[in-house]
Design goal:
The complex is a heterodimer. By secondary structure, chain A is mainly beta. Chain A has no helices and eleven strands. The termini of chain A are far apart. Classes of the chains: A mainly beta, B mainly beta.
């Protein structure tokens, strides 16, 4: 069974601060996706990383996929209240199970003005 | 363009009852996946259908079943409801069998 562990589980920071969220597993994934979910809504895809060591930037968000494709991190620079939400990482299995995403429990981020 | 639509958005059932949840994918998407999200947890994979064929099933009992129709819409059925089935049921569509998932807003099921 593939498991993804996210840390921290909860994070409350002030506007303008930087933060990093981690996603770790003992399993190798063919790709890893990051989603953000707001209350009452479904998750929305932020980025997909595929290659070990890959770094992707989306405005103030920086995503990195570990060299061994087992872990990932999300770094937010100068957080804003609009960044508040549940951040979920999800790994796609290898080979015949690549249709199925395994999600972590998420990091609930609150950015206070 | 319409996104993934799910119905109903909220429903309340009692233990032992049956429920049917419906999902319409984004136009042109042939794959529909169902996920269960219990409060405080990440979504958990239930089923995926691609071109009307079941491609995969998660670790859920046989009380859970699904199907995909010729127009690619999908239904998730849950029989003999238990209190533990209370959750947000998410439907996601994608153009192909793998790749980016586009989620609907979910159906919030409460079992009393």
């Amino acid at each position: 069974t593939q498991l993804l562990e996210q840390s921290p589980q909860f994070l409350s920071i002030q506007e303008g601060e930087n933060l990093t969220v981690y996603c770790n597993s003992s399993s190798v994934f063919s790709s890893l996706q990051w989603y953000r979910q707001e209350p009452g809504e479904g998750p929305v895809l932020l980025v997909t990383v595929v290659t070990g060591g890959e770094v992707k930037k989306l405005k103030r968000l920086t995503f990195q996929f570990g060299d061994a494709r087992k872990d990932s991190s999300l770094h937010i620079t100068a957080a804003q209240p609009g960044d508040t939400g549940l951040y979920l990482c999800a790994g796609a299995g290898s080979g015949g199970s690549n249709y199925k995403l395994t999600f972590g429990k998420g990091t609930l981020l609150t950015v206070n003005p | 363009d319409a996104g993934v639509t799910q119905s109903p958005t909220h429903l309340i059932k009692t233990r032992g009852q049956h429920v049917t949840l419906r999902c319409s994918p984004i136009s042109g998407h042939k794959s529909v996946s169902w996920y269960q999200q219990v409060l405080g947890q990440g979504p958990q994979f239930i089923f995926q259908y691609y071109e009307k064929e079941e491609r995969g099933r998660g670790n859920f009992p046989d009380r859970f079943s699904a199907r995909q129709f010729p127009n690619y819409s999908s239904e998730l059925n849950v029989n003999a409801l238990l209190l533990g089935d209370s959750a947000l049921y998410l439907c996601a569509s994608s153009p192909q069998a793998t790749g980016e998932l586009f989620f609907g807003e979910g159906s919030r099921l409460t079992v009393l």
